[in-house]
Write a structure and sequence with these properties.
Blueprint (H helix, E strand, L loop, with lengths): L24 H12 L6 E4 L3 E2 L6 E8 L5 E8 L6 E3 L11 H6 L7 E3 L5 E7 L4 H17 L4 E7 L9 H14 L1 H13 L9 H11 L4 H9 L4 H13 L7 E4 L2 E4 L4 H26 L12
Helix pairs in contact: 4-5, 4-6, 4-7, 6-7
Length: 304
């Protein structure tokens, strides 16, 4: 028998290797583990495909988790035949580039400062035991209302990092109890607990919080019942879940009209972003007025 000749068609009846598809969950998981060097201790969850915003492509969400609170979700676009995958964000030119973030940021029912309906909204995910959060809080409190009394609004969100900050979540629960009883007292609590950050021990937090309440004429009995009953756990857990949905993994994290800014952002940099958003809002408003300002009518002879 002669040597095989490469390039010749396979004889009929020969076995062919089946092509892999990204719609097979095990296949996609194995591919991504190899691509991103994901160790075996990380859980990879591949969701069912769904229609994407791009015609002809399906969206497959993949979540990587350590089995605890830390997780990251990545979106992939998959071709019809499952042979090609694309990782990246899809933007709609007719919408804000941060529309996905804006859809997920819930500002109602959270502590806030500034005028409702302000053209710039800052949403801050923070941790009371985080040193960088303390510095970010100082920056915002010292500058935001003074510089933008009507143009900016700040919304506070809890994201306690429990793995490294043992009293951060109890402090968040207390903060929400204060807010529930007296929204105006929340920001006093916010400033107070950041100032006390270096002196607080987990076993002393509640006693110190009650001392704070007494200086602010808060109802101590009502506050005690709220703390003991963990009556604000849903609010704090909802904020944590919102952060996870947005892939927020560290504090402080700011969203300025949906634009993500991670870490302790200095005032000069933050002011540039706010000014840019204000200028963009003015241009957008002017353009909308210009489009709606004029109407052309054809003069028709009056009915006889």
């Amino acid at each position: 028998m002669g040597a095989p000749v490469f390039g010749q068609p396979k004889p009929q009846g020969s076995l062919s290797v089946s092509k892999k598809t990204a719609f097979d969950k095990a296949t996609l998981e194995a591919y991504l583990r190899h691509q991103f060097l994901l160790p075996a201790n990380l859980q990879v969850t591949v969701e069912d495909p769904k229609p994407s915003d791009v015609p002809g492509l399906s969206q497959v969400n993949v979540t990587v988790s350590d089995g605890g609170p830390m997780r990251q979700q990545v979106e992939f676009l998959v071709s019809k035949d499952g042979a090609k995958i694309l990782q990246g964000k899809v933007f709609d030119i007719n919408a804000s580039p941060f529309s996905n973030e804006l859809r997920q940021l819930v500002t109602d029912g959270s502590p806030s400062l500034g005028a409702p309906g302000a053209p710039v909204t800052l949403v801050l995910f923070s941790d009371y035991q985080c040193q960088y959060c303390k510095e970010q809080a100082k920056t915002l409190r010292a500058n935001l209302e003074k510089t933008y009394p009507k143009e900016a609004r700040l919304v506070f969100k809890d994201l306690p990092i429990e793995q490294i900050h043992p009293w951060a979540k109890p402090a968040a629960l207390i903060g929400q109890c204060v807010y529930k009883q007296n929204p105006n007292a929340f920001w006093a609590y916010h400033d107070w607990i950041f100032e006390q950050q270096g002196q607080i021990k987990p076993e002393e937090l509640r006693a110190k919080a009650m001392d704070f309440a007494n200086t602010r004429s808060l109802d101590s009995l009502q506050l005690t019942q709220c703390i003991e009953g963990r009556l604000t756990a849903k609010e704090v857990d909802r904020s944590i879940a919102e952060a996870r949905g947005l892939q927020v993994t560290s504090t402080p994290t700011l969203f300025v009209n949906g634009r993500r800014m991670v870490g302790n952002v200095g005032w000069d940099q933050l002011k540039q972003v706010i000014d840019h958003e204000l200028q963009h809002a003015r241009k957008t408003q002017a353009a909308s007025k210009e489009e709606a300002c004029c109407e052309v009518k054809i003069a028709l002879p009056a009915n006889q």
